Amino acid sequence: MKLKKWGALLLALCMIFTMLPTVALAASGPYAEKEVIENDLIVQLPSLDKLVDTPAYNWLAVKAEPTWDDGTILDVVKVTQEFYDSTGEKMADTDTFQNNSRYTMKMTFQSFESYHGDYYYVLSGKNNVYVQYMNGTGEREPMKVTVNKDENGNPVITATYSFSIGTPPEEPSQEATYEWVLSRWDDSANTPLDKVTAVIGQPIQYRAQVIETRPDGTKSPVSTEQMDLQWGYTYVTTDIDITVTTYSTGYIFTITGNKPLERPDGLILYTKNVGPDPCVEACFDFEVVEPTEIELDTVYNISDQAGQYLYYLYQPPKDQTGNYIGYRLWVENASGQVKGSILGNHPTYYTTDSDPISFYVQPASDNARFELVKIKRIKNMELLSVPDSVIKDIQENGSAATLKGLEFKVTYTEGGTQTYLYDGEGIKWTPDGRSYSCFYDKETNEIEIYSFDDVDSLYTESFKVSEQAENKVNITEGLSEVTGDLSNTEYDTVEKIESKLTETILSNEGYSADNTVLYDIEFVTSENGGETWTPVTAENFPAEGIEVTLPYPEGTNGTEYDFTVVHMFDEDVNRHKAGEVETPEVTESANGISFRLTGTSPVMLGYKPHTHSYGGWTDCKDGSNHQRTCSCGHVQKEAHVWDEGKVTKEAAKDAEGIKTYTCKTCGATKTESIPKLTSGTTPSTPGDSANPNTDTTSPKTGDSANIALWIIVMLVSAAGLSCTYFVRRKNKI
């Protein structure tokens, strides 16, 4: 009987246990672990001009940085956005933004009352809120933030930001301030000045404006339409000339000094009809500067004066009357102006008299320089030489050839000549005050030389390329005799020459005497179309050198071998002495080993097997491989080595998740999608590498009890029933 009672009691307890509320057994929803968002919140605005005529609530762009993608913050944080016009009235959904208007944006951020995934995300309350324009050009601007708490004790962040589209109409305010701001007219930045410079013999223009500063910190110049400008100066005589012109938002003061003054105190500016005060006034100190006199055709280096205005003058000879003369100011790492005339980067001035030429230079760095030269007129130009490198450039690039290394001579109407070596980009700094550019015309097979200045406007001459002397390089393997003037040096035998060149080769690691080849190289020219050839002498050997290409020694190539070249000068040429040795830089191409020589004969080539020296691994961007490159150009590829992956975005009912894999070698990443959650799936936990959507739950019926617990209860109940049954049967028996 006792056993029967105990079995019945056990069965009853089990049934009661199964009826308990399942919420007591579950750890989900508001009872889940809280994940605090510490990141800054970024509110993105489009460029303000794109807001015009768009509805106020047509968009919402918020993100958390740096660990959240755009928009994902909206999955766990409730965001509301409101706009107010300049009157403080809230804009309706259908209201659109208008140009030349002011607005205020109000953003409210608060956590959801329910959990997201396996976590209940909340704001920290310490989150900064910034505005950043979507075009990416503007800096982040902080929003004004206040923090409160909701009914659950979680932070609610309210942030406001005021902005203007276009130029809103002025809104006079008793709190606004007004002040005179003086800057140089040629200063695009309008840098405020506290003094006025009056240069002897040179007018300087200044911009004077009344600037309104509003309570919100915005500034703008006041229109001169209603201004009553008054100006004057203290302790200044007529030795300073001042003229004033008016434009819409300011005044232009042209100030010229005539001679140094003992007491040039200041320029006074005041105006009425601006702001609440009876008068807005300011006084700017005078500084009278006498320019430094300079010489023509002299380079002046400027140091430790970056950003300053430096004033100079040149006095032309008194006998220059009636002739139209041009002067050009060459400047480097500086800007300059000559009597108000600016031409490109190099100011020019033209005159028919002998008045002083005044100018200023403003150094941009401490290594600036300038030079004033007289512009010369061209009588004719002569093309002196077309090096092999230029011919090769023309053959390979046609009209796009740079013509670097071209040499030409200019003869002037005033007498005298000047020789120029073209740099391939344009000759700017010249002693004749002119600029030069060279071009190749493929259709006419002509080299054209242009010279620019405003006296002659443009001077051009053309030269047929075929009319120039033809050049070539003769290469002979081995050295049969001592060449040039080497017989007068310590290298007076072939053996001594070869020994010196071999010694230089072996000074480089990895090279051996067995892997060397000796060449005799000769540079020759023809004036009759190749009928006869004569060696190029030291007197007319090109200063830029000649390009030489040697064939690859048998059994070698440009990918599996490294090469070095040693050259011995056999005569005094290009500031080198006979017997000197040089090691030119080599280039390995499909045609052979190329290098440049500033003299010819003899040359030794050394070679050794190439050992790869790779850099770091980089992603191939093909989704499968990474690579690294040797200095020789060889590329080594290997497959990515992926890690186990990490869930970087949890799946939700309305959005797929993301799992990110990282290559252990190069750091490349790839992603896989995690399917959206369904009614029968359980969210994955952070760091779980398994499929987050593996269905291990029973269908939802409003009860979230654990199925394992149900099974245990059923087994216990069955045991109780069995025990009762067997005891009862035994008693009957």
The Cα radius of gyration reads 43 Å
Low confidence ranges? 16-28, 686-705, 729-733
Major sheet details:
6 strands, antiparallel
Summed up, the domain count is 6
Strand content: 35-45%
What does this 3D model show about the protein?
With 733 residues, the chain is mainly β. It has 6 domains: 51 residues, no CATH class; 137 residues, no CATH class; 113 residues, Immunoglobulin-like (Sandwich); 83 residues, no CATH class; 90 residues, no CATH class; 140 residues, no CATH class. The protein has 4 helices and 48 strands. Strand 40 and strand 41 form a beta hairpin. The two termini are 14 Å apart. The C terminus is likely disordered.
Features:
disordered C terminus; 6-stranded antiparallel β-sheet; single chain; 6 domains; Immunoglobulin-like; mainly beta; 733 residues; 48 strands
Please specify the SSE layout and strand pairing.
Blueprint: H1 2-18, E1 33-37, E2 40-45, E3 62-65, E4 77-85, E5 101-111, E6 119-123, E7 129-133, E8 141-142, E9 144-149, E10 155-165, E11 177-184, E12 195-199, E13 204-213, E14 219-221, E15 228-234, E16 240-247, E17 250-257, E18 266-272, E19 280-289, E20 292-293, E21 300-302, E22 310-314, E23 325-332, E24 334-338, E25 348-351, E26 357-363, E27 368-374, E28 378-385, H2 388-397, E29 407-412, E30 417-421, E31 435-441, E32 446-453, E33 457-464, E34 470-477, H3 494-506, E35 516-526, E36 534-535, E37 546-550, E38 561-568, E39 581-582, E40 587-588, E41 593-597, E42 603-609, E43 618-619, E44 625-629, E45 635-639, E46 646-649, E47 657-662, E48 669-674, H4 707-732
Parallel strand pairs: 1-6, 2-7, 12-19, 20-22
Antiparallel strand pairs: 2-3, 4-5, 5-10, 7-8, 9-10, 11-13, 13-14, 13-17, 15-18, 16-17, 18-19, 21-27, 22-26, 23-25, 23-27, 24-26, 28-29, 29-30, 31-32, 32-33, 34-35, 35-36, 35-42, 37-41, 38-39, 38-42, 40-41, 43-44, 44-45, 46-47, 47-48
